């Protein structure tokens, strides 16, 4: 009789244990970027706010490599239990769908969009000493006058700078030389030295040389002018309508994560939209704080995947 009573009590307690309030242990955020990168900094600004509101440690897990593929796959392989989230960006959760043919996951189907955290402009810059043009149309004219002569700086094949350059080539028909560099600092130095005097880059990566007057910004790649550079035209205003390639940072969950968990995280983030200190620190990185709902992020991913698949097909780009 005693054994039956204990067994019955154990069975009755099991559902209660399974339904323990979330979160009851630390939360991990996987980042497909190295420490110190722009996306990493944004995540580390958001993390303490989540930790304070949720009452559990929020641990950052950097998994850089393969253009973000390594980190995204680590999140994909994790349980959809609300204790692993992913910081994604325009490359890892947009471009990769276009250039990889063997991804073990579907960026749209296997990840639940939680919030578009921040969005900022990429910029088209030139070294004004080597390329003394005043606007995008003058640059296009110069490139057409010198086919196959002008170096464009980029990082890895398939990275955002490469894809933006390919989009530019597809839309204008110009013939340029793509020169790869190991990372954003080397790429910026190449533009400043004049070795590769033209470059599409994230504003945060090139802000120093811009402020020093060593490079000139011809246009931003966002649909609207950036509050960070209100006098700089968009690519559309510069004569290339449809050219859009925003830099963004977002939070995702594994598909199947409980809806109440996602709603709770979204609520915590939404409460920070009027956080003036956070907004200023994010703006200092060359981007703007958004903290959107999931639908805004879902549409951003959908549009980016479609855009880059089209560019990759037209330019015959595939990741090796």
Poorly predicted runs of 5 or more residues: 12-18
CATH topology of the largest domain: D-Maltodextrin-Binding Protein, domain 2
**What's the total number of strands?**
11
For the record, what is the CATH homologous superfamily label of the largest domain? Bordetella uptake gene, domain 1
CATH class division of the largest domain: Alpha Beta
Helical segment tally? 11
Distance between the termini: 67 Å
Helix percentage range: 40-55%
SSE series = HEHEHEHEEHEHEHEHEEHHEH
Strand order of the largest sheet: 2-1-3-10-4-11
Structural class: alpha/beta
Describe the structure.
This protein is 42% helix and 18% strand. The protein folds into two domains: 26-119 and 246-315, D-Maltodextrin-Binding Protein, domain 2; 122-220, D-Maltodextrin-Binding Protein, domain 2. The longest helix is centred in the last third of the chain and has 22 residues, at 294-315. Helix 4 (91-99) packs parallel to helix 11 (294-315) and helix 6 (160-172) crosses helix 11 (294-315). It has a six-stranded mixed sheet, with helices on both faces. The protein has helices at 2-18, 38-54, 69-76, 91-99, 136-145, 160-172, 184-193, 203-211, 259-270, 276-283, 294-315, and strands spanning 27-31, 58-62, 84-89, 111-120, 122-126, 151-154, 177-180, 198-202, 216-220, 247-254, 288-289. It has 320 residues and is an alpha/beta fold.
Give a quick summary of the entry.
With 320 residues, the chain is an alpha/beta fold. It is built from eleven helices and eleven strands. The strands form two sheets. The chain has a six-stranded mixed beta sheet with strand order 2-1-3-10-4-11, with helices on both faces. Strands 7-6-8-5-9 form a five-stranded mixed beta sheet.
């Amino acid at each position: 009789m005693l054994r039956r009573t204990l067994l019955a009590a154990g069975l009755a307690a099991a559902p209660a244990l399974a339904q323990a309030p979330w979160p009851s242990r630390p939360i991990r955020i996987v980042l497909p970027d190295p420490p110190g990168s722009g996306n990493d900094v944004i995540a580390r600004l958001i993390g303490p706010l989540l930790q304070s509101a949720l009452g559990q440690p929020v641990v950052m897990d950097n998994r850089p490599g393969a253009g973000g593929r390594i980190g995204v796959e680590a999140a994909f392989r994790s349980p959809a239990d609300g204790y692993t989230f992913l910081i994604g960006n325009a490359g890892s959760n947009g471009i990769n769908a276009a250039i990889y043919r063997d991804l073990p996951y579907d960026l749209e189907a296997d990840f639940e969009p939680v919030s578009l955290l921040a969005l900022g402009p990429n910029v088209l810059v030139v070294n004004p000493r080597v390329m003394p043009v005043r606007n995008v149309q003058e640059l296009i004219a110069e490139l057409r006058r010198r086919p196959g002569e002008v170096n464009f700086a980029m990082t890895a094949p398939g990275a955002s700078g490469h894809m933006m350059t390919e989009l530019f080539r597809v839309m204008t028909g110009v013939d340029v030389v793509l020169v790869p560099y190991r990372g954003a600092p080397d790429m910026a130095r190449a533009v400043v030295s004049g070795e590769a005097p033209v470059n599409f880059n994230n504003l945060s990566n090139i802000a120093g040389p811009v402020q020093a007057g060593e490079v000139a910004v011809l246009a931003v790649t966002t649909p609207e002018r950036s509050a960070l550079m209100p006098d700089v035209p968009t690519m559309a205003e510069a004569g290339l309508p449809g050219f859009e390639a925003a830099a963004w940072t977002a939070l995702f969950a594994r598909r199947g994560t409980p809806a109440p968990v996602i709603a709770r995280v979204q609520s915590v983030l939404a409460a920070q939209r009027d956080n003036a200190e956070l907004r200023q620190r994010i703006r200092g990185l060359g981007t703007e704080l958004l903290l959107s709902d999931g639908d805004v992020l879902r549409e951003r991913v959908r549009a980016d995947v479609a855009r880059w698949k089209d560019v990759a097909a037209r330019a015959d780009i595939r990741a090796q």
